[in-house]
Amino acid sequence: VQLVESGGGSVQAGGSLLLSCAASQYTYCMGWFRQAPGKERERVAIIGDDIPTSYVDSVKGRFTISKDNPKNTLYLEMYTLKPEDTAMYYCAAKVGRWFGDCDVMEYDYWGQGTQVTVSS
Question: What is the largest CA-CA distance in the chain?
């Protein structure tokens, strides 16, 4: 599975961005992860068919993950961005059948990443 992210950029605090991830084929679990310099990779949000979406606490109410299966495309709508959201954002995909398969850090396929920079 090949994943290609787009939509990153530089915005001021309070702004918004839409990240997209085009996948070469369908996978049950998809997610967005991020990594800031000097910090560990963090799982931002995950989604799977007919299961609840899951978000890290720091983005709840500000970010929305969604998936368009016919287009094999994953999205992350980011609103009210904060400087602490600055990171490289990665799209990831994983084979699975239920929420437990998606609710992990270890995903099978990764995109090259797209940079999000939020200035104060």
Answer: 41
Cβ distance 36 to 87 under 8 Å?
A: yes
Hey, what amino acid is at 90?
A: Y
pLDDT along the chain (120 residues), means of 10: 96 98 96 96 94 94 96 97 98 93 94 97
Query: At which residue do the structure tokens 């929305």 appear?
Result: 64
Distance of CA 75 to CAs 37, 38, 51, Å? 23, 26, 16
What is residue 104's three-state secondary structure? coil
The DSSP secondary-structure symbol of 70 reads T
Instruction: List pLDDT tens digits, range 62-92.
Output: 999 999 999 999 999 999 999 999 999 999 9
Q: Is the CB of residue 110 less than 8 Å from the CB of residue 2? A: no
Report pLDDT for 55. Answer: 97
